[in-house]
Amino acid sequence: MRAIGKGSLSSILAVGLHVTRIILFIALFGLSIAMIFMPLIGAAGALFSGSDNIDISVGRSDYFDVAYNFIAVLVMLYVVTRLLEILKTLRFGSPFVKENADRFRQVGYALLIGEGAKFVFSFLGLIFGTDIDIDIELIAWLAIIAVFVLSEVFTEGARMKEEQDLTV
Amino acid sequence: MGISVKLDRVLLDRGMSLTELSERVGVTIANLSVLKTGKAKAIRFSTLEAICKELDCQPGDILFFEDEAAAVNAAE
């Protein structure tokens, strides 16, 4: 399979990432609306608490869920955007640049923040006694390490490319 | 870097332009400019050989070593 051009893996990935980005934007919009209206829904729930037919109570775990998902979607959006930028440089035929090494490092930090948020929300869940269900995944941590290793590889690759370009 | 390139001086001595040298050695003007301006990080033996052959000179006529640390110390 070709690396660049029509029908290449990078172009397929780019299409997939563009679609993912649109979905994430919609999710972020939805979560923003939820964050704004959740207190109102909570208030309405308290108002109708006497009625048997209506159950629109908003608990503490719902706030945690929305807040955590908001951060997760933000992280994913950031990662997808950086990956699209990396793929763009690949399409232009120059992926081994220092900027891409920095982008990979930023992706690593973003994923680290995402996983860190999991810990924070798990901890807060324990403190406030909410039933928030967040798993700590070893594979995710290995993926973060892999991204940082990739970043170092790209740093060295960019240095070698520069040396190659400046070899007469 | 401690190595400086004096290609322009040799070219001047030989009365040859960079374009002419480029055509003779088969290296692009852009690459020769990189070499001339001291931006090059490395030079291939084949390039050096071709340049020396066309300019009828030795590698030492083009490349010089300058001890930057010693120069700084001397200035201080």
Any chance you could write out the topology, listing elements then pairs?
The complex is a heterodimer of chains A (168) and B (76).
Chain A: H1 9-47, H2 60-91, H3 98-128, H4 138-165
Helix pairs in contact in A: 1-2, 2-3, 3-4
Chain B: E1 3-5, H1 7-14, H2 18-25, H3 29-36, H4 45-55, H5 59-62, E2 63-65, H6 68-75
Antiparallel strand pairs in B: 1-2
CATH structural architecture of chain B: Orthogonal Bundle
Distance between the termini of chain A: 32 Å
Biggest sheet layout of chain B: 2 strands, antiparallel
Strand order of the largest sheet of chain B: 1-2
How would you characterize this protein structure?
- The complex is a heterodimer of chains A (168) and B (76).
- The relative contact order of chain A is 0.11.
- Chain A has 168 residues and is an all-alpha fold.
- Chain A is elongated and about 80 Å long.
- Chain A has one domain.
- Helix content of chain A is 77%, strand content 0%.
- Chain A starts with 8 loop residues before the first helix and ends with a helix.
- Chain B is 62% helix and 8% strand.
- In chain B, 14% of the residues are buried.
- Chain B has helices at residues 7-14, 18-25, 29-36, 45-55, 59-62, 68-75, and strands at residues 3-5, 63-65.
- Chain B is elongated and about 45 Å long.
- Chain B is mostly helical.
- Chain B is built from six helices and two strands, in the order E-H-H-H-H-H-E-H.
- Chain B has one domain (3-68): lambda repressor-like DNA-binding domains (434 Repressor (Amino-terminal Domain)).
- The longest helix of chain B is centred in the middle third of the chain and has 11 residues, at 45-55.
- The A-B interface holds A 162-163, 166-168 and B 27, 31-32, 34-35, 39-44, 47.
